[in-house]
Structure to design on (185 residues):
């Protein structure tokens, strides 16, 4: 292959890589809706059952070493940050019955069990979240607010954070609450 053909081949390969990156980014963004708040107005403050956060560790570290104590504390800290933010917005948070929650693996993906529990408790909303750890560097924070009566998602959002630290969790969830979940259109 002469120099001109080699350069042309290199440019084609660079162009193909660029197309793949753009397609992957578009698919990743379309699947999560990370940058978009749910349509309509933010939920009005009312009673809500707060199910807390479910931790999903898909990292190699988690598969080998299991649950880390610092991550368990970090999840508890993030739950407190979220609950304080919701209360400051006027929500009255109720604890779900432990026996019913024990039967649900993940309230965010429970086929409506979270909404049914909230409805049975007389609450207007079911609120739950999820943390997915891909690695110590890449984590995804999710939060869902569902109407207890209909089970419809009123608001939901996700942010990806860089770093498995207390500060990144705190800032990530506060950003999610302020700029996605409660962002007014």
């Amino acid at each position: 292959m002469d120099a001109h053909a080699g350069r042309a081949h290199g440019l084609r390969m660079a162009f193909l890589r660029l197309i793949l990156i753009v397609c992957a980014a578009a698919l990743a963004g379309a699947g999560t809706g990370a940058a978009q708040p749910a349509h309509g107005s933010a939920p009005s403050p009312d009673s809500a059952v707060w199910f807390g956060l479910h931790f999903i560790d898909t990292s190699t570290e988690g598969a080998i070493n299991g649950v880390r104590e610092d991550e368990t504390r970090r999840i508890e800290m993030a739950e407190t940050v979220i609950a304080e933010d919701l209360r400051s917005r006027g929500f009255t948070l109720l604890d779900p019955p432990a026996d019913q929650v024990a039967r649900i693996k993940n309230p965010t993906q429970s086929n409506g069990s979270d909404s049914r529990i909230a409805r049975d408790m007389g609450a207007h909303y079911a609120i739950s979240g999820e943390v997915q750890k891909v690695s110590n560097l890449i984590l995804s924070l999710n939060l869902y607010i569902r109407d207890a009566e209909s089970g419809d998602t009123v608001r939901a959002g996700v942010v990806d954070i860089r770093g498995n630290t207390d500060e990144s969790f705190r800032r990530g969830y506060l950003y999610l609450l302020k700029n996605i979940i409660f962002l007014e259109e």
